[in-house]
Specification:
Blueprint (H helix, E strand, L loop, with lengths): L1 E7 L5 H15 L6 E7 L11 H9 L21 E4 L2 H8 L7 E4 L19 H23 L3
Parallel strand pairs: 1-2, 1-3, 3-4
The protein binds 4-nitrophenyl phosphate (4NP).
């Protein structure tokens, strides 16, 4: 089983979408026995909360479930995932500053076929920003899954 942790700042907008999309795509590919996913925030302000209503709305519109409640990343996370995929460079720097990571610590956007390396924070944005972030994350998690499975 390969475990993937998706990380953003608050764990209410971007990383819950990445987790939900990856789980959705893994299930569609019939690979749920091979890959598991979780998400976390570098900050703790929203711990225990449901994802942002705008993330829930865009996910529901596309038939994607967002299963987890917000939580802050823990020291244990650094050594319990094969991949820690961050939404932006600040998230990545904040995770790296927590200590050595056992798996691979990368930007999710590294896998974006359109080459957009950071997922912008939509928190202060509009519904259209959430839709754009959804599409960006979706194509990136899909390409990441293809990378994991060696598909072309
Ligand atoms: P996220 O978005 O990192 O994608 O979950 C944010 C959520 C909350 C805040 C910032 C970004 N905040 O400042 O509370």
């Amino acid at each position: 089983m390969t475990s993937v942790l998706f990380v953003c700042l608050g764990n209410i907008c971007r990383s819950p979408l990445a987790e939900g999309l990856f789980v959705h795509q893994v299930a569609k590919a019939g690979l749920s026995h091979q890959f598991s996913a979780d998400s976390a925030g570098t900050g703790d302000w929203h711990a225990g909360e449901l994802p942002d209503p705008r993330s829930r709305a865009v996910a529901a519109k596309h038939g994607v479930l967002l299963p987890s409640l917000a939580r802050q990343i823990t020291p244990r996370d650094l050594v319990s995932h094969g991949y820690i995929l961050c939404m932006d460079r600040q998230n990545l720097a904040n995770v790296a500053a927590l200590g050595p990571v056992q798996g691979e610590l990368l930007l999710l956007g590294q896998f974006d076929p359109q080459g957009v390396h950071e997922v912008p924070d939509p928190y202060w944005g509009t519904d259209a920003d959430f839709e754009a972030v959804f599409q960006q994350i979706s194509r990136s998690t899909s390409a990441f899954l293809a990378h994991l499975t060696g598909a072309r």
